[in-house]
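Notebook entry, structure prediction.
Reason for the run: the old model in the group folder had no record of what sequence produced it. Starting over properly, with the input documented here first.
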Amino acid sequence: MTSYQLALQQLTDSALPTGAFAHSLGFESYIHRELVRDEVTFADWLSSFVGQQLTYSDGLAVRFLYEGVDVGLLDGVLSAQLLAREVREASLKMGGRLLEIGGEVFPSGELDAYRELVREGRAQGHQPLAFGVIARSLQVPYEEALSAYLFATVTCLTQNAVRAIPLGQNAGQRVLRDAHDAVAAVVRDVAQLCWDDFGAVSPGLEISQMRHERQRARMFMS
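New structure, fully documented this time:
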């Protein structure tokens, strides 16, 4: 077994206490408007989310980090491009927990440097960057790291949809199986993008994420 594989499984396990269970990253607004209401409509939303935010924001952030772009620069750009306040705060809350857990469980000089930037207020600590820093320090190859991050995000969102819509457990597993191809496509697509593509997320998704903040009744923080 490759030395990093068990560590990567732990890092992407849905039981890792980052607080991901508390976030819908926008799909609860679609439930509220009855646009997401069952397995088919959630799978459609998830496909759009994977092809947008997970491609042009999180996915590119992980790629640029692996290519050696300064983590402080990437952190600042992510803060600027995440327009919906709740989604930006979700990234920071989950990223902060990941930095804390990583510091205890997967310590490294690279991780310490990023945590120090956050402590000094020179960075904020976003989830995809925290994950990327830990994965790179564990010597996880780039494509494996990106695939694992993407699928872990998809898994958490699907588990949350099972509770919120609600979906049956088997329906959730069908959605996850269908998402395999979407995740593989993101890995291919991210490799073809450039710096100018960073943050090019659908306005409709961002508007829905902003609406969540003023929703009268909700299960999730974002």
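Summary: The radius of gyration is 16 Å.
The old model has been moved to the deprecated folder.
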